Amino acid sequence: MSDKFDVVVIGAGPGGYVAAIRAAQLGLKTACVEKWLNKDGKPVFGGTCLNVGCIPSKALLEASHKYVEAKEEFADLGIQADNVSMDVKKMIARKDKIVGNLTMGIAALFKANGVTAFEGTGKLLAGKKIEVTDHKGEVQQIEAENVIIASGSVPVNIPPAPLTEGLIVDSSGALEFDEVPQRLGVIGAGVIGLELGSVWKRLGSDVTVFEAMDSFLASVDQQIAKEAKKTLTKQGLKIALGARVMGTEINGSEVTVKYTDASGEKEAVFDKLIVCVGRRPYTESLLANDAGVSLDERGFIFVDDQCRTSVPGVYAIGDVVRGPMLAHKASEEGIMVADIVAGHKAEMNYDCIPNVIYTFPEIAWVGKTEEELKNEGIDYRSGVFPFSASGRAMANNATEGMAKILAHAETDRILGVHIIGQNAGEMIAQGVIAMEFGSSAEDLALTCYAHPTLSEVVHEAALAVDGHAIHMANRKKRK
Description:
Strand 18 and strand 19 form a beta hairpin. This protein has three domains: 222 residues, 3-Layer(bba) Sandwich (FAD/NAD(P)-binding domain); 109 residues, 3-Layer(bba) Sandwich (FAD/NAD(P)-binding domain); 113 residues, Enolase-like, domain 1. Strands 1, 2, 3, 4, 5, 6 and 17 form a seven-stranded mixed sheet that branches. Strands 8-15-9-10-11 form a five-stranded parallel sheet, covered by helices on one side. The longest helix has 26 residues. It is 29% helix and 25% strand. By secondary structure, it is an alpha/beta fold.
């Protein structure tokens, strides 16, 4: 006889574990199925984000940035730090310790909230039954009144660059290098490629990033993207646009990349090659043929605005459904669905999901880009303010970047906020909150900001929408 739960969540990533905890907090008998094993072969929670994604990559980004600061920038502050070196193995060990602490933390939260954990692979059967196959191959069935699918995504592999252990790796493998490669190639100039490329460039690698598209960061506001490319190139990243990788060849401990660009066929030789060309929804062995859940043409589970699938009582959230593949988007969807299952009214504002690229400077945005507004024929006004005019940015020795606010020409409602600069990932929350409450640019302009702070750059950008920025020459004034 199978166990029966009010809610069963398949997947314990940032969408799944949050959904499970929320459901349990609302008094629902909840279970969560997770198959992830850590390096030691032990079951852990947290999914890609916590184990081989968001958290470990930020640990390496932070360590490598502090290394560059100490080696190249401390002297500007009057700090003498000679013979600075990086212990890569210790850096990786610290990253692993952080991941371990957080995965144990989720296990403790499950226990504290009464979530039953099943270790193994979950498969949705007809009638909202879930088949769980543990790591020994033993199978059991559990039943649910409601099912939340949160199976996440996996890296996309490409035929021209098949993964080869130790030489051609995906984003997970790039977090495990135990020494700095002298020559590093990265396929894909998206979020992951730029972050990982930045880590190893800071530590001494000669990094080349191949991007098949002719434009850089096409989904980012192009004024911000242009500034980002200039800054990252200045830092030493070689960004090859319009460069399509056609094949790879392994010769001993080297990888030869064959690619084409506007000038024809070319080759480049690397010690390591990272493949970062995107991610795809993970649905392998997830759904029985008679489960009734529909997939779209790209392999995503079809859901409505409240994450309901084609089967009543079955929901899907996170990377396995439409929308940006972001941990925080998955978490908020998990909370929304748990609330709906518990009988509450809940919805999510998909127009207010922030995006962050954790290079230095960070790149963050929410809402529409200037290009999108032009394409949609929306009349808008723009306010831009540079970090170079910020007293706090000068004090921090971090004057690169700008904040940009786009507002509706008639209503002044904020349509988009875009920031490149130190701590942009923290500062973008101002834009998210403002847009969530339907604020105007004037609302931000009339807000009292603490001085001196980096956030004053956002304040001045809001003032600049009307041509009233205080700390720069005004180029326009609102009539």
